[in-house]
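User: Hi! I'm a student and our assignment asks us to look at how structure tokens line up with a sequence. Could you show me two examples?

Assistant: Happy to help. In each example below, the sequence comes first and the structure tokens follow. Example one:
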Amino acid sequence: MTNCRVSVILPLKDYTPFLEESLKSTVSCLKPEMELILVDDRMDPDCMPVLKPHLSHPKVTLKKANGTGIVNALHTGLSLAKGLYIARMDADDFCMGDRFTLKQEYLDRHSFKEGEDYLWMV
């Protein structure tokens, strides 16, 4: 993906009844200059049927974590991220409207320290 501005990292472990809505809402917020990285942290097999419809989306990637645990999952996602800005979501989080776009625009207007390779969005 060229000119990626925002990489959204979403680690997956336990199944949650909110996973489908979380994925739908997150994917709906992605703009052309954004990507969603799903990280498999030994995820529950019940997650896969919910993930499958989203894996064909050109901005969605699923990768297995290097190791186990949330820290390793986040490091895996970060190592794959192409964006200048990093956003973090959980499997039970919902994304509304232009969340990533508004934060990207704010951060574009407010420079960060020279030499930083990326900036976290919260």
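Example two works the same way, sequence first and then tokens:
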Amino acid sequence: MVTMVEEQDATGLIKDVYDDIKQHFGMVPNLFKAMAGVDADWLNENWQREKRIMLEDGPLDHKTRELIAFAVSVANNCAYCSIAHEAMAAQRGATKEELGHAREVIELFSGFNAIANSYPDLDCEFSSPY
């Protein structure tokens, strides 16, 4: 069973993190409340990573990051994360058509990955330019 720390019960580090989360999201998502129910430091570490990777400016725009998070969440069969990141992608400007196309890409490459994985000796002729 999930133990969550609700906002009215938050103190110390958990309250500080919740206040910061609310500045960005206007609320505290249940996933962060569940992390707080396990360990305040773990909550804080994950929130700091969320801010650095998803919220601060970087080489990928915010909509693209959320579409990637949506795709990974779908591929990992995480209903909570899929719903959350679909909503966040839409908030960042993703259209219904873009989200639909993302679903097509997810489905296509889930299948292609399965096919490629069925050939354990299949060499890839591509290499990273980096």
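Here is something you could point out in your write-up. The chain has a mean pLDDT of 96.
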